[in-house]
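Predict the 3D structure for this chain.
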Amino acid sequence: MLHIKSKIPILLLKTSETGMMAVLKHKSVYTPKPAACIHTDKFMGMDFNSISVHDLPPQLNKERFYLFRNSLFKLSLILFTSLIFVCRLKVIKDLEVMCGNIPTLENNRSSTITADYCFSIGYTINVKGKQGFETPHNIPERMGYYVCTKNPLERSLPSWKKLLWVKAKELLNLYDPVFAAGEYVVQFSRMSSPSHSCKMHKDKKDIGPQYIMYLGNYRNAILQAYDEEEKSYQCFSKPYLMLKFDGRLKHRVLMENFVGVRYAIIFYKLYDFRQPFLAPIFFPPQYLY
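Done. Predicted structure below.
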C-alpha cells in the first residue's frame, strides 16, 4: 500500500495492470499534509510500493482537481440547458393549444393589422381621463400619457385572457426574467389567410425592444425588419424561436402565397416604473436560444 500526502483532498482511483493512471518520478521539496491514499499493484512495469511520497509531482493532484471541477461544471451546464429546453417546449406547446382555442373576435381590424384576431393584455397607456389610466408616465418624451398599473389578473377580463397572461408570462420568464419583472404588454394574433396582413409601420410608443414568437404550422409569412436608415432589411419567419426585435424601426409582415395558420405572441413595453428613459435602438434582430 502506498500512502500519498497532499495539500488538496482529491478523488484517487484503484488501478491494476490495465489501470488508468501512470505516475512519473519527480523529485520535489513539497511539504504536504495527509489527505488520501492509492491502492494499486504494478502498472507499466513500475512498482508503486517502491515510490515514496516525495517522488509524486505535487502538480498531479492540482491537475486532477481542475479536470474534475471543469468536467463537473460542463455536465451541470448541459443538464441545466436541457432542463430549460424541456420547460420552454412544454410552455410553447401549451400556448399553441390555447391560441388555437381563442374565439375569433369582432372589431379586431386596425389600420395596421388584419387577422382572425388581434388583441393585447397588459400595462397599456392612454390619455388622462380614461378609466383606469391614472399613473403619469415616467419618461419625459411620453409626457401627457397615463398608465393603467392595475395587475391584469385583478381586472375584469375573461378567464381565458387571464390564463393566457399567466402562461405567456411563464414563457417570458424562461427567456428574460428581468424584462418580465416590470410592466409590459402581450399581443396575441392569428393569421390564416393570404388576405391577412401587417402593413409597414413603426411602434412609436414603445420604450425599448420587444420579443416575438411565432407558433403554428405555416409557410410564407415573413417579417421584414428595416435598419435605422431604412435602406436595408432582414427577414425572419422561423416558428417556435424567440426573436428580440425593435418595433420602433420600420417593419412589416409579407403574406404572399401564405399557407397554414400562424399565431404571433409579442411582448413589448409602453411603460416600466424602473426605466425613466427610452432604451437604445436594438439592431439587428436576434434569435434567442
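The two ends are 52 Å apart (CA to CA).
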